[in-house]
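2024-03-11 09:14:02 DEBUG pipeline.ingest accepted 1 chain
2024-03-11 09:14:02 DEBUG pipeline.ingest length=89
2024-03-11 09:14:03 DEBUG pipeline.predict start
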Amino acid sequence: MPDDDVLDILEKVPALADAQLWEIARRCRIFRSRADGEDQTVELEMSTDAARRWMVVARDEARDLTAQGVPMPGLNGAIHMVPWYLLDE
């Protein structure tokens, strides 16, 4: 990871004063079975903000479905807050 703290730099940009700033920390690809038994590829994006909270977004790009959790103080909690059932629709 570079020495520069990206979020600190972005927070000082006047045009971004009201923006929510999240740095993508990790990406993963998941292969899972949906509730109907069909195979599914899910792109997982795990981000942190300046307060070091985590937020997780899961996407099934082939079916244009997204499940997004809420910001949590730890990655474990953030992953468990994703409404995974939304990817089964």
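2024-03-11 09:14:41 DEBUG pipeline.report The longest helix spans residues 6-11.
2024-03-11 09:14:41 DEBUG pipeline.predict end
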